[in-house]
Amino acid sequence: MLTLTDREKISRGLAAGWRLCDIAEVLGRDRSVISREVARHGGREDYRAGPAEEAARAARG
Q1: Which of 45, 2, 47 lies closest to 26, judged by CA?
Q2: Among 25, 24, 16, 2, which residue's Cα sits nearest to residue 41?
């Protein structure tokens, strides 16, 4: 499960133009986890940590 801190790092990495595999390495996660997270919450252009965290919390119940 990704944390808000993880999501913030993803958001900053995307803004800096990092590749998903680089973000995954920094977070110690598999690239597929990062890829699914980004795709699920707006894609590279629209991903934001706060809304992604809110959606993930709502999905968990």
Answers
A1: 2
A2: 2
Percentage of the chain beyond pLDDT 90 is 97
Of 43, 45, 38, 42, which Cα lies nearest the Cα of 24? 38
Q: How many CA atoms lie within 13 A of 11 on its CB side?
A: 17
* Other CB atoms within 10 Å distance of the CB of residue 23: 24
Mean pLDDT of 3-31: 98
Cα end-to-end span (Å), the chain:
14
The residue assigned the tokens 């709502």 is 58
DSSP 8-class letter at 44 = H
Report pLDDT digits (tens) over 36-50: 999 999 999 999 999
